[in-house]
Amino acid sequence: MGLFDKIFEKKVCAICGGEIGLLGNRKLEDGNMCKNCAAKLSPWFSDRRSSTVEEIKAQLEYREANKLEVEKFNVTRTMGENTKIHLDEDALKFIVTRSRNFKETNPDVIDFTQVTGCELDVSEREREEKRKDADGKMVSYNPPRYEFEYDFYFEIFVNHPYFDNIRFQLNSSSIKTTPDVAVPRNRKPNPKLNAEYREYEIMGQELKAILTQARQQGRDEAAAAAAPKEKLTCPWCGATTIPDANGCCEYCGGSFNG
Q1: Using an 8 Å Cβ cutoff, are 111 and 93 in contact?
Q2: What is the DSSP letter of 44?
């Protein structure tokens, strides 16, 4: 078979069995996958090329089961702009998505207990402002003038079988700070004096606190549920019983909490 024939050789998706178009092939470690099947994978997954067909099939089974979790997801709080993190604080779960109708895009539903850490990363870029001289050439001011731009990225580290971090931008457009007067480079303006800068800094710190606190709450609840149950004497009916999830007697329904 010649090189030309090899390039245009028809390929079959190892996942769905469909024929793969000319530009639709997505390579796996031991096979090929069509772009339609690839689109069903988690948006945070990045190890496709080193994954086997069986590993991809297992992930797609997980993604199908995730649709049920999305249907049950109840948003109690939202943070961010273009990319948003939606929290279900009652179920101790969250999703991160750009979609306005997230139930159509099947974002990964992640348990707070899967969070292993959070970081707020502020990216700074500087650009020198210049002016035209008498010859029409762009030259520096004396002393130089600079404009600074900032973007806020939030990264969540998770214990998940298909990805280990979620990184997204909190702000929708870069925050610019420019000195009111020409200043030397070593006297750049304090970005914390910019209201927008402070807004996103506070948002990132608040989100980190929420996830950290909720993670601990979820782990404490899981530990309590797994702990051996102690038999107690009901103060209402005198029966020896193990309190239910609400702290009540299994016989008379009386509360152990008074």
Answers
A1: yes
A2: T
